[in-house]
Amino acid sequence: MNSETKITVALDGTGGDNVDAKSVASAVRFALVLYPNIKIKVYGSQKLKVALAFEKVDSSRYEFIDAPECIPQDEDPRAVLEGYRTSAMRRVIEAVKDKEADVAVSSGGTGPLVSLSRHILGTIGGLRPALCAKLPAGPSKYSLMLDLGANASSNAKDLHDFAILGQTAYQCFYNVSKPRVCVLNVGSERNKGSALVKEARDLIEQDHSLNCYGFVEADKLFTDDADVIVTDGFTGNVALKAAEGVASAFLNAQGMKKFFSKLARPEWLQPWQYNGSVLLGVDGLVIKSHASAGKEAVAVALVEAAKTAQLNLVETIKKQVQ
Amino acid sequence: MNSETKITVALDGTGGDNVDAKSVASAVRFALVLYPNIKIKVYGSQKLKVALAFEKVDSSRYEFIDAPECIPQDEDPRAVLEGYRTSAMRRVIEAVKDKEADVAVSSGGTGPLVSLSRHILGTIGGLRPALCAKLPAGPSKYSLMLDLGANASSNAKDLHDFAILGQTAYQCFYNVSKPRVCVLNVGSERNKGSALVKEARDLIEQDHSLNCYGFVEADKLFTDDADVIVTDGFTGNVALKAAEGVASAFLNAQGMKKFFSKLARPEWLQPWQYNGSVLLGVDGLVIKSHASAGKEAVAVALVEAAKTAQLNLVETIKKQVQ
Keyword DNA damage on this protein (chains A, B) (predicted)? Predict the structure, then answer.
């Protein structure tokens, strides 16, 4: 695809902690303005339909589909798969499966989203799917970190899968053939850390299709010391949230401090809380929008989804593992 | 002990990435000025002896002991226990064991420090030792987080031990009888997370001597949502370093941004990178100074050590587990 390709984004307008109809509608409007070649299929409640009309969103650029059913964030995985047949989350993934959309976006619960995506789209080449985010690593520099919580626990073979997925994604996003793949650890020396990370590092080193760059510590997440940072979903999720916690402590300061913190924040550090995560390893493109990042998050995730949909990411991963 | 009690601190003057003789000497001088009732036994090289004289540190307040042998950060645990008989790290721990000092401070490697402390001092009541740090959680508010890397991996019983150690430490530090004990997790709902954290939460809930406050997420580490935050050493270490990484991205900004970031930083967030960690669960007081936090870190760790030594922490833990 080239940059003129029309992209259709299927948006789950029901999920997320901070998501209300009004903010979803303004996110849709914003994304359409920002990205002239996308069309959005919006799945949600009648309230959302009204909000879209109220926001005067260009009706030739979006399609509203009545799908008010919302899956609770922490619904039991079996209940997610067996029930909620008409939920907005299920339907956006089905739209990708049925080629009615190029990419699905949801800010609903990670558990339901991953379960449904694996179930409906299937996995690629037996790889373990993982949630992958772009972390800013300096002016115009990014790292990819995965897994961020698609899996509650992982073994070394899973981490090796994440390395393959992360490398392919990095190649697609940044056109770098051999990105530096690192395993997140509590030290950089070979004898440091848990049995899991040591075994994962060995597997990644033995795989000559990967450029293993050893261990990286969590204080180097934003410093361009690694291109692809591989970790289990528990650790990755904790690392990212700890980073967010500190950023918030700066940015939620009161009075003059709030003003100074806006001036102080390096521009390149700006977008990381807003970008969505891509679910890599399933046979279709699914973006998890970061619900707690606020109103801007859905709009940014829509734009990221459209950009990612132009990269042939899923097809490239398929070729890689064949 | 009361606040007039004389405290003797045994300082390992050899360890740490950023530690040179001059900065150790100025840290000693600074700590002596800040805390009139401490005496410091400084273990190190002749170079350090010269630096102490050069810095004109009051010679009645410190004692220099020639102990130039330094244990490499990532030395093999067996080699640490069998060799390095005259190392400064070993000798400061022996000084605590022999009641020649109230507390040992080292910025050497975590692995060697924990191995030697467990070996020389012994553990208390079969509890699993853990490294515990104070995290700022708002103006004049702190949380305690443990383990931060004393153990490469932990089971649920270990996390229960950490809860007991953390509660006792919180009681000693802040005179609160029933601190909120939380387990660090990727979500706050009961069904979220790894098998380890679910089992640990169950054990902590079943222990009626503890005030189990459920799960806490890593973006709430600095928000006063928990008093004691229990986690395995791998996750705790990653969480803290990720937080440091973001703080550094703010504070290492260049030019005007550096100026604004100093103004922006909430005062209460200041000290967390400098405070040492206490090794809880061994029969003697050992403080790990954070080597990479820079020159101020050793001085702050010395002061924290002196304050902690007045709290009868080890004796209180012993009583608790009897």
Answer: no
Name all domains of chain B by residue range, CATH numbers in brackets. Answer: 1-124+282-315 (3.40.718.10), 127-271 (3.40.718.10)
- Give Cα A289 to chain centroid, integer Å: 6
Q: Report the side by side order of strands in the sheet with A62-66.
A: A62-66, A38-44, A7-12, A103-106, A286-288, A277-280, A130-136, A142-146, A228-230, A180-185, A211-217
Chain B touched by A191 (CB under 8 Å): yes
A180-231 tens-digit pLDDT: 999 999 999 998 999 999 999 999 999 999 999 999 999 999 999 999 999 9
Q: How far apart are CA B201 and CA B163, in angstroms?
A: 10
Token pair of A151 as six digits: 């899996």
| Closest listed residue to residue A240, CA positions, set B196, B229, B219 | B219
Round to whole Å and give the CA distance between B2 and A124: 66
The predicted-structure confidence for B275-320, as pLDDT tens digits, reads as follows 689 999 999 999 998 766 566 788 888 988 999 999 999 999 999 8
Tokens of residue B65, six digits: 């002991």
Is A245 in Cβ contact with B264 (below 8 Å)? Answer: no
Q: Which of residues 253-272 of B touch A (CB under 8 A)?
A: 253, 256-258, 260-261, 263-266, 269
